[in-house]
Amino acid sequence: MAGRRILLTGGAGYIGSHTYLALSEAGHAVTILDSFENARRSVVDRLGRITGRPVDVIDADVRDAAALDAAFAQGRFEAVVHFAALKAVSDSVKRPLDYFDVNVGGLTTLLKVMEAHDCRRLVFSSSATVYGVPDETPTPETAEFRAMNPYGQTKIIGEQLLGWLSASDPRWAIGILRYFNPAGAHASTMIGEDPRDIPNNLMPFISKVATGELPKISVFGDDYDTPDGTGVRDYIHVEDLARGHVLSLGKLFESGEGHLVNLGTGRGYSVLEVISAYKRASNRDLAFEIAPRRPGDVPIYVASAEKAAEVLGFRTEKTLDQMCASSWAWISGEHSGGTD
Ligand code: UD1
C-alpha cells in the first residue's frame, strides 16, 4: 500500500509509540498529536533515534478543536489512529467526568474536525473491557456490551457513537479494535511501558518488582474458577498489537468499509503463569503474596481471535516468554525510567 498521511493521537503513549514505529515502517507519514499528560517527552526523541528520521509532533490535547483544526489544515491527513484517552479503571470510578470529557468529548471533537476536513477514516482503540463479565470465553465480537465502570462505559459509548456515525454517512470507514492485555516492549529496548506512578496493571507491576523498585507482587485472588484459581488474561505482545493497527488501516483504505475486531492471541495465561514466565525471563526471584480479589475484576478474558484473522489477516506471532523477555530487556536497560 502506498504511504498515507496519518494523524496518531496519543502517539507518545505505550501502544501509540509502538504503533508509530509499525506505521512508519509500513511507509506511512505519521504525525503524533499528544498532550504529554500521561506520556514522556523523551519518547519522541527515541522514536526519532529508532527510525533515523525526525518525528513530527503536535503538542495538543485532543479536546482542543482549534489545535486539531490547525493540525488538519497543515497535515491534510487521510486517516486518524486515535489512542488519546484515559485508561485506568479505578481512576475512572473516582473521576468519571474527566473520563467522559476526554474519552467521549475528545472523540466527538476529533470526529467533527475530521468531517470538516473531509477525512473519514479512523482506527479506534477500544478494549475487551466493553464485554464486562462475558458469558462466553474465548469471547467473540458478538458478545453484548456490559459496562463495569466509567472507563468501560466511555469505550462502549465511543463504539456506539462510531456506529451511528457510520450509519449516517457511508463515506466513513472506521476500524474498531478491542485490545486484550498488551504486554512487552519494542525490540530496540528504547521504548516500552513505563508508568509514572505505581502501576495498576500486572505486567508493569511485575517488572518493577524484578528491578527491585517494588517489594512484592500482590496476586489479586486465588479462588477464581480458573485452573490455578488466579485471573486469566489474553496477553498480546505490543508489537503484534501495533501491527494490527497497520492491517486495520490498510483494510480501511482497501475496502472503504469499517470493521470491528478483537486483538488478542486467543490463549489465556493466569497471574501465576505470568509471574513464572517473568521469573524465567529476568532470572530474578519474584516475591509475591496472595491478596484479596480486586473489586470489579473479571475471572477470565480471552479473545476469540478468529474474526481478526479472517477480516484483517491478523495473527499474533509473539509468545508470553517473548513479552516477558522484551519487557525485562526494556525495564532493566539503560533507556527506561526517564524523569521527564
Ligand atoms: C485492566 C482493566 C481494563 C483495562 C486494562 C488496560 C480492570 C478491572 N480492568 O485490565 O479495563 O482495559 O487494564 O488498562 O482494572 N493482577 C494481580 N496483581 C496486580 C495487578 C493485576 O494479581 O498487581 C491480576 C488481575 O487481578 C488480573 C490480571 O492480573 O487477573 C491482569 O490485570 P491487569 O493487568 O490490571 O489487567 P486487566 O484487569 O485485565
Defining key terms:
340 residues; alpha/beta; Rossmann fold; seven-stranded parallel sheet; three-stranded mixed sheet; 11 helices; 14 strands; 17% strand; binds uridine-diphosphate-N-acetylglucosamine
Describe this structure in words.
The chain has a domain at 5-185 and 235-264 and 302-316: NAD(P)-binding Rossmann-like Domain (Rossmann fold, 3-Layer(aba) Sandwich). The strands form 4 sheets. A 7-stranded parallel β-sheet has the order 3-2-1-4-5-6-11, sandwiched between helices. Strands 12-9-14 form a 3-stranded mixed β-sheet. A two-stranded parallel ribbon has the order 7-10. Helix content is 40%, strand content 17%. Helix 1 crosses helix 8 (238-255), helix 7 (202-210) packs across helix 11 and helix 9 (271-282) packs across helix 11 (320-331). It has helices at 14-25, 42-51, 65-75, 89-94, 96-116, 150-168, 202-210, 238-255, 271-282, 306-312, 320-331, and strands at residues 5-9, 29-34, 56-59, 79-82, 121-127, 173-179, 181-183, 217-220, 232-233, 235-237, 259-263, 269-270, 288-291, 300-301. The mean pLDDT is 96. The protein contains 11 helices and 14 strands. The longest helix is centred in the first third of the chain and has 21 residues, at 96-116. The protein is globular and about 55 Å long. Strand 2 (29-34), helix 2 (42-51) and strand 3 (56-59) form a beta-alpha-beta unit. The two termini are 37 Å apart. The protein is of the alpha/beta class and 340 residues long. It binds uridine-diphosphate-N-acetylglucosamine (UD1). The site of uridine-diphosphate-N-acetylglucosamine has 21 residues, from helix 7 and strand 8.
